[in-house]
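Model the whole thing, not chain by chain.
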Amino acid sequence: MEEEKKGSTSGFWRWAIASVLFRLILVFFPKNLHLSSRPEVSTPLTSLRRLSEGYWLKQSSMSPYAGSMYHGSPLLLSILGPLTALRIEGQPEHLLCGLFFILADIVNAMLIRATGQCLQMAYSQRLKALDLVKLSAASGTIQSGNLAALVYLWNPFTIVACVGLSTSPVENLATILSLYGACTGLVPLAAFGWVIATHMSLYPAILIVPVILLLGYGPDAPPRKVFLQKEYKNGGQSNVQVIFSWRQLVHFVFWSIIWGTYVLVLCGISVKQYAGLQEMIRRTYGFILTVEDLSPNIGVLWYFFAEVFDFFRSFFFIVFHMNILFMILPLAIRLKHRPAFLAFVYIAITATFKSYPSVGDSALYFGLLALFANELADIKFSFFLFCGYIGVSLLSPVMHNLWIWRIILVVESVSAMLDHDRMLMKLVAARKHVDSKS
Amino acid sequence: MELLRRPIFSLLLLLSLPISFPSISLGSAVQGEDGHREEEFTEELLLKPLPDRKVLAHFHFENTAQRTQSYGRHHHLFPKAISQLVKKFAVREMELSFTQGRWNYESWGGFDPISSSNAKPPGVELWATFDVPPDQVDASWKNLTHSLSGLFCASINFLESSATYSAPEWAFQPASGNLRYGTLPREAVCTENLTPWLKLLPCRDKAGISSLMDRPSIYRGFYHSQRLRLRPAKIIADGADSGIVLEQTLTVVLQPNGFRTKSSHSSENKIPPTWAMSSLLGRKIEGRCVLAKSSNVYLQLERGLVAELNALKENQEFVGTTVLNDDLIENPAFEISVKPDWVLKEVGNLPTGSSSLMYGYSIGKSTDSGPFDLHLTWKSPMVWSCPRPPLHASRFLMGSGNERGAIAISLRSTGLNEGLYGSNKDKESCVLPVNVFQVVPWYIKVYFHTIKVFIDEQRKAVPDVIEKIRVSPSEDKVLPGVMEMVLKLPCGVKSAAMTLEFDKGFLHIDEYPPDANQGFDIPSAIITFPNVEAAMHFNQFSSSDKSPLLSRFREKNPVQSYTEVLLVPLTTPDFSMPYNVITITCTVFALYFGSLLNVLRKRASEEERLLRAKGRSSPLSRLLAKLRRKKEVEPQSSTTSSSLFSSKLVVKIILVAAIAICWQYFG
C-alpha cells in the first residue's frame, strides 16, 4: 500500500512537471495560436489586452477606468501592469505574464492537491468512526487530491486559459486559496482568499456560505443523521461530535473585515488621484452586474441582452441574478454537511450563469469536481456526459457565436449536478444498506 | 385735422419706402455714424482648370455685419436666421459643411488655400466655438445642432448625442477652448440642403453669380462641398463689439463634358478639354447682384501650369514667332474669350519658383453689356501638376472578420518636403511636425497601447516619433474615442505609417440602422502640417476693391488634409429573433431552476419509498423519519391523516387568501 502510494505520488509529480513543460512550450511559441483573441478565453473582465490598455492609460496619467476598456481590480493592474509593459528582446510579447499565469496555475494545482488530501483524510476518519473501514479503504485507492490536481493541470480549458493570457488563473487562485484555508482551518487565509476573490470578480462572494460551514463544521462528512443512526445503534454516546464552532465564524468575520478594509485602502490609494473608489466600484461591479458589454462569450446573457427590448432590461437583470442567489439557501440547507461540495456547486452555477463567463471558470469547477472522485465514482450517465461535454467543447470554436452549444452545456451541467446530488443520495442509501446489513 | 394729417403722413411714408430702401441697399456699404461700414456683401467666383482635365468652380459669398444697437432686430443684408442663432447660442465661430464626393488631393491640389480650407470630409462636418462658460458649452452645442438641423433640412441633430461629437484641444485648427467638433459621414447631401443655404444670400439665386447654380450641373460634379463659415470680424480693434462675418462657399469640381468627344481624338489626348462657363454650369451670368458691393469672377492658373506656359513661351521666343506678355493672356496654349479686367500675380517666397496667375473680371450690371460667359479654348497639349501637400495622407483598415482589426494611417512623401527644407543643411535636426486628429466612434474600441509607428518601413519606438499625444478613450454608448497627436518626422522621410488595433463592439438591436446597412463609418482623420502654411499672396490690383476671396487666400492657415472615411462592417444579430432568444434563454433558466429544485426536494420521497418497501413497522425507519422530518406524520397514520391533511389545506387556503387580501389592500 505504501509503495503504491509512493508510486502514485512520483507519477503525479511526473505528470505535473510534464504539464508545466507543456505550458512553457505553448507560452514560448504562441505565434500561431491566437488564443488570447478567442472570446471563450478572454472576456472583457479577464482580457490581458484590456489590462495593458488600462495600464497604459494609468501610465499616461489617466484613470485606468477612463473609457470602457478595463474593468478589473486596480491591485491586479499594479501587479500585472508592469509585466505587460516589459518586453524581452526576441521573445513573445507577454512572456512574463504567461510565466506569471503558469506560476498561478502551479500554485492552484498544489492547493487543490492539499485540499483534496485534507478532505480525504477527514472523510476517511469519519468513515472509520462509522465503522465503514471497508468503504474508507476503497475510497483510499484513488488519491482524489492528486487526481484533482492533475485534472486541473491537464484540463484543456485550464491550459487554454493560462496560455491564452486571461487573468482567470489569478482569480481562481484567490478562490482556491479561500477553500484551502477553510479546509485546513486557517481562518486568516480563508478570509483573505474570499475577500480577494470577491474583490476581483464579485461572484465568489456567495462562497461565504460554504467557507463558514467548512470552518464551522469542518470538512465534508457523511450526513449527520448517519452518525445519529450509528449512535442509536450503539446505544451510547458517539465519539464524533458535530458542533458548529462559533469561534471560527467570529474569527472569519473579524479577519474578513481586516482584509476587506486593507484591500479597500489599497484600492483607494491606487485610484485616489483619478476618480476614487466610487468610480472603481461603478466600473467593476457595475459593469459585471449590468452586462454593458455585449461582445460574445460562452455565457447565456450577452445575446439575450443584445436582443431584449430596453424596457425589459432591468427586469431581466434582476431575474437572472436572482437565479444565482435563489439557490444559495436551499443548497446550503441540503448540503450543509458537505461544504466543500457545496462550494463546488456554487462555483459551477456561477461559472454557468455569470455575466462574462470564460473557460477559466469551467476549468476551476472541473478541477474541484475531481476532488469528489471517490464519492461520485458511480455517477449515472458519466460516459454520456463526458462524451457530450467533449463534443460540445470541440464544436464550440466552430460555432462560438451560436447559441446551441452553450444551451447544451448549461442543460448538461445542470443534469450533471442533478446526478451528483442523486449520487450523494445513493451513497447515503448505500451506506444505510451497509448499516442495516451489519 | 389731426386725424387727417396722420394718414397722409403715413401714406407719404409708404410711398417713400420703396424709393428709400433700394437707395439704402444699393449703396450696400451703408455708412454708420462712426464712419465704418455697417453691412456689406460680396460675391465672387473662382474658376480653375485642374491637371486632370476637370474644372474647379469655387463660389465665395461674404456677408459682414457689425454689431450695432439695432443688431439682432433688423438687418439689411445679413440673414436674420443666422444672426439670431449667433446671438442666442453665443457662437463665436462656426463652420458647417455639406460635402459629397472626396477631394482628390493628388490631382486637385493639397497645398493651396482652397484645398486646405474648402476640401471637407464627405457628409456633414460641423464645428463651433462658443462664448459661454465651459460647463454650458455642451448645452449650447446641442441647441445649435437642433437649430441648424431645422435651418438646413439635414439630420445635424444626430450630432446632439455625446457619442457623436468631441472636444479637440489642440490638434484641430483653430485650437480654442470651447470647441466642439462633430461629423456625420453618412449624410446624403442634395438640393434640399442647398436651397436653404441659398436663401441666406441677399439675392438668393435669382441674380448675380449665385444664379449660376443650376442644380443638375452642380450635382453632376465629381465633388461638391457647400460650406458656411461664421467668424468674428476683425475690422474694429476694440474686440468686444466686433461684428460677424458670414462666409458661404460652394466648391464644385466639374468635368467639362461638352467637348470631351472632340478632344479624345486629338494627339495623345493631352489637350485639356475646352470649356465655357455656360457649358460647365449650364447658365451665364446675367448681371451682378445689385446688393453686392463687388461681384468678381476669377480665373486662376496654377503655378505648375504657369511654369509650363513660361517654358512654352521661351520656346516660342526662341523660335522667334511672337513676343508674349508676362501676363500670358495671349499664349500658344489656350485662348480666353473675354479679356480680363486685371491680372494678379502671386508674390512672396514661392517654393517652386513660378508664381500663379489670377485673371479678374468684374461683373457689371446687366444693362452694361450682354450676359457674361467665359470660354477657355485649349490649343495645344498641356500637362502640369498641382501643388501637393508635403505628405500624402491615406488611411485604411487592416485585418479581417467582424471581431477585430487595425486602423493604419499612412503618410507618403510627395517630394515637396525635400524641396521645402532643401536649403536646410543639417538634415538631422530638421523635423516636420504633423498633427493627427482622429475621432473613432465608441463601437470601434481602440487599444491605444498598441500604437505602432513605422518610418521608412522600419518600426520606431513610440516616444521617438510621437512628441505629444492626448487620448480620450471611448466609453460605451457615451463618448467617442479621440486621439490628438503631434508626430515629429524627419524631413527626408519617404513614408511613415501608424497603426492602431481595435476590437469591434457589439451593438444592441436598437442601435443598428433600421434597414439593411453596409456598415458603420469611421469619420475622417485630419492631418495638419502646422509649420507649412497654405497662403497665396497676390499683388493687389489697385482699382479692385479689397476682395474677400483674395484676403482669405492670404490668411496663414496651416496645410490640412482629410483622410478617407472608413467603412467598418459590424456583426449583425438576427433581428427577427428577439422572442426566440428570450424564450430559449428563459427555458434554459427554467430548466436549471426546475431540475435543481427537483433534486433538492427529491430525497424525502425517495427515501420514503425505500423505507416503505423495507417494511413500515421497523422502529429504525420510524425513528429516522421522525428525525428527518419532525412534523411529518408517520406512514402508518396515513388513513387518519386525511383530516389532518384537510386542516392543513384549510390553513394553506386561509394563508393564500390573507396574502391576496393584503396584496389587494396594500398593493
